[in-house]
## 1
Amino acid sequence: MTTVRWIAAGLAAALLASCAAIQFSLPGVAQDGDGRHLPGKVVWHDLLTDTPEQTRAFYGELLGWEFEELPLGNTNYTLIRHRGRAIGGMVDQNRLPTTADVSQWVVVISVADVERAVAAVAAAGGAVITAPTSLGERGDIAVVADNQGAVMALLQTRDGDPPDPGEATTTGDFLWDELWSANPAAARDFYRAAVGYTTQERQLGSGGQQLDYHILSTGGRPRAGLRERPRVDIPPTWVSYLRVADAGQLDDILSRVEALGGRVLVPATDRPAGGRVALIAGPSGAGIALQTWSDSQTLAEAGP
């Protein structure tokens, strides 16, 4: 099986730190929020890519994403929109101070108080890569790694978080985020202490295909999943999932990936909890998952 480019945590963290250290103002992540903060929610996704033009074309053709350059002079940041809604951002890796290829997706998790959050990360055995840094309208951000090296960003938004959506999302929306861990029990304890997640364990699949799966929740709502990494050569990492309406649509998307410059890393397979899932990489090699999700399903059914 062709593998996605998994980045060593130390190298990825160094580059993310350089991004966070740039002093400029980014738009807030909530377009229609009510000012509330939803700690523990993944509120944003950023993509580091060494092929920005090809990446624009790839996701634009594949999922209808739109890319908007910010009117901030020489700022190395592009908004990603889907059906007019801002869903993430893109950074041109070629303009970062490195010659290494570190293309990857990065999850951004909401926290109520970023200073307290980074202190909790350190106390729980994680690493604080960058101290809290202001991004103007967006709020204050810090880059951290958990106790096994998985890198993420913590964001205290200035004007509140995106509200929890209704259960219906559209194809191409971010649906779910999952931590692939070398030691799920240790990771569970870390995220309980550092982020304040409550956890619920599930047994998915049957027979020899059983998988221990943990749902990470805050405010009574599922926020992310935690599972053992599927292969020992994959370092602990966060993986993001995009919603696809049904198996037919998933097959159509996968049939166009390679012609658009991407790769199908894992073909569509059945999920232990039902439905279908696949893993693809864009032109830069940054991996992302596609998961079928019907309008009748709820986030409480989330899983691998």
Note: The chain has a mean pLDDT of 86.
## 2
Amino acid sequence: MKRSISGRLFDAANITVLALVGILTLFPLYYVVVVSFTDPAEYIRKQGYVLFPQSWTFDSYNYLLSTSAFKNATLISAFLAIVGTALSLVVTSAFSYGLSRKRLQGRRFMMLLILITILFGPGLIPPYLLVRDLGLINSVWSLILPVLTSGWYVILMKSFFDSIPVELEESAVIDGSTDIGVFFRIVLPLSLPALAAFGLFYAVGYWNTFFNAVLYINDYTKWPLQLVLRNMLIDSSTQAGGTAAAEMMAEQNIPTETLKMAAVVIATFPILCVYPFLQKHFAKGVMLGSVKG
């Protein structure tokens, strides 16, 4: 079927506009990556205007990964993303599964409490007092336990569990399986798309932990990567390794901007690597349980 001239012109204009928007969107990412790999001498010589560097180097990455503070921050963020995501998925899925079963006593009251936590936030002072009284100040667990689950995620996962036929569980019980066995052998394997979707949400949240670290972590050796990156971006001299790092940077003659860009790439790279593998499960997991026939 042939298209009219006006239709072709519209398609051409549409493609052109979308291409320009795509270029404008990708250009900041391209600039960050290019500057992070640019040779420090060339960056200084061109006074920061580098789009097509002549020489590429890993000096900025080697320096950042050689500082103890930056390595500790990366390990802490990795610990938060891995351990925090695993614990959050266990708690959220177990809680949601219990709420999805009508034989659970008090499930309506629990749902009401969850809705209250969604509609009314406690603010900053009550959570801080709770963390302080639990002795979690300057502890990595203060960045996990207060956000271990989310009322909104519990409701979404509960709607997914509602779509699983009860007959499957009844058959497993007849075969001698316990409730815990049904949950781990029947329910969770069928919930992999939903677990992948919510796992991605939790992993991104833990990896990008920033504000809670500002509130609860006073020891800079326990800062997560995002807090270290924040100090690097707003300060004229990097805080990645304290005074010693600043002196080393001066000795190696590495521009601060290339270090900042390298830190941004390191902080962004893990999520960019994980997302493509979970994308198909992500789309399926978000939609499952949202529509019932």
Note: Residues 5-37 form the longest helix (33 residues).
## 3
Amino acid sequence: MPQGHSAPAMRVLIFDSGIGGMGVVQSLRDTHPTLHIDYLADTALFPYGEQPDAPLTLRIVSLLKSACDRLLPDILVVACNTASTIALPALRECLKIPVVGCVPPIRWAGRVSQTRTIGLLSTSATARRPYIIDLHQRFAADCRLLTHGARGLADLAERAFLGEPIADDDVRRELRQLFQQPFGTEIDTIGLGCTHYTFLMPAFTRLADQPVTWLDPAPAVARQVGMVMSQIAQEDRNARSARLLMTKAPSDCIRLERAVERLGFTSWEVFSPVSIPA
């Protein structure tokens, strides 16, 4: 490489059903400031947690195959717990690039809990999936796991990311459904089982009825991306602006643009593949 020229930035595509993956974007910006990041949100079907698995998996694979063909990323990050728990094997079989997923941090919680009673906040569908039982049995079998499938928290998190005020009572109501379960007063560690919840972390720590350690998987996902980056070769390609793509236009464009500008996205566009399962 000629002297004075820097290496081309590696390209990463981050995918989520909404803005939840922006927490991973922030962590990657902090650790790899020159990294080229594109972002795709399937806002037309947000939230994923309430969708049936089989058609949702088909949609995710079709959507991301189309996006990768267009954006040519070096790495795909599925920054969505629901999508990761159902679609990672199919994506890795379909795509020819590394795929990094995001799963509920039950193993992490099991490593740090002192009371051996851990909590998980997730969407209601994620809380019901056998995948959670498997994670618990494999990595934290000696812990009591209490879960709360909080349907409303993802919507609250989207609003918080956009800078809208969130009522304390709305957050406190969801937290108490976890703490007021049998043995809930023994919880000392809570994992976030939905990437959207990153943006409610200040409210969680302020409003929890008892002191707990909160585990946000976004920094861990960013570290995993860094490890994958160190193992693959970069292609010499022309630089371009980061792209923010959504399958449905936002209801408040001004708030969205203001929120994502600090993360390096100067505009957004609707992503319309030729055909994806509805």
Note: The longest strand covers residues 11-16.
## 4
Amino acid sequence: MDLRQLATFRVLAMTLNFHQAAQRLGYVQSTVTAQIQALEAELGARLFDRLGRHITLTNAGERLLPYAEQLLKIAEEARQAVSEPQECTGTLTIGATETLCTYCLPAVLHQFRLSYPQVRLLFYPTPFSALRRLVTEGQVDLAFLMEEPLTAAALQAEPLLPESIYLVASPDHPFAQRSAISPSDLEDETILLTEAGCSYRTQFQHQLNAAGVQPATMLEFDSVEAIKQCALVGMGIAVLPAIVVATEISQGRLVVLPWSGEPICLVTQMIWHKQKWLSPTLQAFLQITRQILMQP
């Protein structure tokens, strides 16, 4: 099997979009199509179902994906192993949640690109629920997530920053002048939340459940930016990381509600597979991340 075809297959399996895959790989779309067709012909199996403009992995495609990851990983390690010992080359694949993509990592990515322009960075904004799986399966080299300190047999986790979670609302909200807000106060309120499975949403809901509280309306979004915008126009009370709302709070456009429940605190951390070879390129990225995110 041609490694270039496997690399194309991997990117298409992650994006499920021929146009996006072509953009990430620097190909024209017809090249992606031709490589996938050639790989399917060699294997004698259809790897993707084409449903109009949408595609999905077939069972054969799902079975091939972990093998493709292993083959590409071994090829990359072999290539780097015969390079100069301190040379940073190759491709680095990073995954992170929307919050960290937007508010933490741009400075890291910018500095790394300035320092190592010869390295190809593939960056995947990824839902929280998928990050650990992608690292475990080798689909990303490194992932960033915000949750409680991680312990997992196959994963190495390094904490970077403590993160506070706030309840925020528009200054016009009736609770903006309160001296304290308890779980029971939220019974008749509209609460703006992230996707199910998100660590801070889980902690917040545990506190509500323990108090026997069910808010009148709970609106779920897959974007922290959408939650923030809804809070700004007075739609309800948002539960968000401090870094997401710091600017709006300093400008007086949002206020932090004085939550009397248990503080919700998480840790921004980076994770990688314990068996992964820490190439010079990956080590350089880890070091730049530490320097930027952990500086006083």
Note: The domain at 90-296 is CATH 3.40.190.290 (D-Maltodextrin-Binding Protein; domain 2).
